[in-house]
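Inverse folding, one chain.
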């Protein structure tokens, strides 16, 4: 059985679509990882600032 040109082109397009889908999934995972790291940094910063404000407020209270 001989493949027609249209079938070969369709197979190449499908393979390219799968490769692009895997690349997009990897980018999504990497982007999600950076988002989680950024959120953790902001949460730590907010927590440390709140702790510092509470400590200062309790020290200055008569």
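Residues assigned per position:
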């Amino acid at each position: 059985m001989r493949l027609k040109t249209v079938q070969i082109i369709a197979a190449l397009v499908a393979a390219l679509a799968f490769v692009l889908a895997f690349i997009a999934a990897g980018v999504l995972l990497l982007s999600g990882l950076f988002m989680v790291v950024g959120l953790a940094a902001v949460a730590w910063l907010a927590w440390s600032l709140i702790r510092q404000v509470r400590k200062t407020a309790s020290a200055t209270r008569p």
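Helices lie at 5-60. Residues 27 and 34 are 11 Å apart (CA to CA).
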